[in-house]
Amino acid sequence: MSVRIRPLTPHIGGEVEGIDMRRPLTPDDVAAVEAGMDRHAVLVFHDQDVSDEQQVAFSRNFGEIELALGSNVTTDAERRLDVKLADISNLDRENRVLARDDRRRMFNLGNRLWHSDSSFRAVPAKYSLLSARRIPSTGGNTEFADMRAAYDALDDKTKAEIEDLVCEHSLIYSRGQLGFTELSEEEKRTFRPVRQRLVRTHPVTGRRSLFLSSHIGTIVGWPMPEARCFIRDLIEHATQREFVYAHVWRQHDLVMWDNRQTMHRARPFDETREARDMRRTTIAGDAPTVAQEAA
Q: How far apart are CA 81 and CA 94, in angstroms?
């Protein structure tokens, strides 16, 4: 069966048919998925009942796996999954729902803020692939915003103003918005800010896009309060409903997105009573967006 992709919105998102992630892909399959990503930025694959190993094998068709290290406050002893998968769940090692006041749960609430995966790394991520192994009865959707359409909709004056701006990204900034500020010295070193361009150009399509995230704490050379107000306004602009696709999860969905062209956020569910077991593989990027300096 050939790969077919149906657009989900005028700007962002495509629904894929003709892929079984339990089987090896052909070169034509890989090319079709990559072309779909370049066009739609978010791809939805239904009915993919995969194991962790199958998800990792599928992901490797698109690049090197970024290890899930340095991106949370979970200790090695608390880790539930192999380091090739990021644990986007509300579960502990025994698959029990985390307590409401569990430090890991508090930190992970940051996923409800608009962000781009791994923008806090010197080399930010390329793709993310999120597999829904177990979903709650209601809620827990994921929303995706098209940063290409958001850039296109800016006026010329704003485009000129942001052209060469560089921002500092860190998990310290995003979690600080939620009042999560009690970090160990080791965590502060791990989450040290990195610098990223505010405007990016896609290497294949040549389209410009905004590189926004809740991880942004300031703009280099700007007073922090002014920078944060400016970034807040840009995020409000970029997440207007016309630019957003809201995915309502079904069990065994796998959603794949391009972090270079999108932001996303998780939506609430009854997470102190119901389990949401989501497992993410992340494809590493290949270069910094700017020359990195110690921030």
A: 11
Tokens of 33: 């998925």
Residue 267, burial from CB neighbour count under 10 angstroms (0-12, 13-18, 19+): middle
237: Cβ contacts below 8 Å, ≥ 6 apart = 150, 153, 154
Per DSSP bridges, beta strands 277-282 and 127-134 are antiparallel
Residue pair 24/237 in contact (Cβ under 8 Å)? The answer is no
The answer as to CATH 3.60.130.10 being correct for domain 4-282 is yes
- Distance (Å, rounded) from C-alpha 23 to C-alpha 42? 22
CA distances 205 to 148, 199, 200, 202, 261, Å, are 11, 15, 12, 6, 11
pLDDT, position 212: 98
Contact predicate 46/76, CB 8 Å: no
Structure tokens that stand for 265 in this block: 């956020």
Amino acid at 5: I
Q: pTM for the full model?
A: 0.96
Of the candidates 111, 151, 118, 162, the residue with the CA atom closest to the CA atom of residue 276: 111
- Kindly report the CA angle at 254 between 264 and 36, in degrees rounded to 5? 75
Q: State residue 294's pLDDT score.
A: 42
What local confidence, expressed as pLDDT, does residue 124 receive? Answer: 98
Token pair in block for residue 95: 């698959």
**List of the chain residues with pLDDT < 70:** 1, 291-295
For the chain, which residues make up each domain, given as ranges? 4-282
Output the pLDDT for position 291.
66
Answer whether 241's CB lies under 8 Å from 145's CB.
Answer: no
The single-letter code of the amino acid at 10 is P
Bridge partners of residue 129, in order along the sequence: 256, 281
Q: Is the dihedral of CA 198, 126, 249, 216 positive or negative?
A: negative
